[in-house]
């Protein structure tokens, strides 16, 4: 087996797939650990909000945070918004396993209350299904998380589950990915619950992650939300960390990157973790010795770009209608830096108001976002270059 056998390729491009080496996110992981420590010590904290473009590693970071909490025996639910299920159903199902792990014959009053409340929350979205925790909860306190008001029910659930976790010396952590896809009602309920938890000192830690529009979305949901969360932009990796993302996994596998190959790949990937994984994978597979050369890197970039065009970019481009693709083409003339809505309209020889539906649809599909009033930008880096490579429509 050679040193560069593809079966030992350490790079793993893919949505949310953990890299062989998580680099450049030490500050965020340290802050998360501090929050866990503070809650375990009975102190209050701010919930976290992570935001950034697609491909910067938000989901990977969220998963690493969840694993850190799980390693401390916390009750942890990591979910994704915007699926075909409501927040109620997604969160409820995610909590069943962790709650089952808390079961013990000598369950205390707080745990019994939490389990009964969880059962009522389950009933609020699925009256036909039933959970069984194997305990007689008939005379237990709790319940009441089925009022029909998400804000009320979520607060009740989090309060009782946090109290049960605190009884075991830990806490409850809920991590929500793609939070920009929460409905208005859901986002309001999440913010209100986090606010109440902070005010009353519940053993609860919330982290939400989403596109760059997330701070604006949160602020519009609740007037105090911009002060409630600690907001952290997740951006492309700095040069040194981007190089480490390539070099560290290879070194562990006994393969070395030539310095020129690292520099070239980092520059082409512009520090975006997803691109680094894609280019690293292709460069590894092209190498024939124990050193990944500049030629391997060049071939890796070419093959990696084709793979990105056929998957990462194509999947998004094909979701747009012909009219929406025309809007995206007009945006692409400005590159990845964003466009003025008025400039896009002028290029299409249309009035800005007439393009409102197309713009709203593209935002809903997660292809673009509005960084500020009157501006629009791509949610994925490199989208403008991809569009420039597409043939002109007939």
Describe the structure.
- With 394 residues, the chain is of the alpha/beta class.
- It folds into three domains: 26-233, P-loop containing nucleotide triphosphate hydrolases (Rossmann fold, 3-Layer(aba) Sandwich); 242-316, Helicase, Ruva Protein, domain 3; 319-388, Arc Repressor Mutant, subunit A (Orthogonal Bundle), CATH 1.10.10.
- Helices cover 52% and strands 10% of the residues.
- The protein contains 16 helices and ten strands.
- A five-stranded parallel sheet has the order 2-3-4-1-5, sandwiched between helices.
- A hairpin with a 5-residue loop joins strand 9 (368-369) and strand 10.
- Helix 1 packs parallel to helix 2, helix 5 (150-167) runs parallel beside helix 6 and helix 11 (273-286) crosses helix 12 (294-317).
- The N and C termini lie far apart (50 Å).
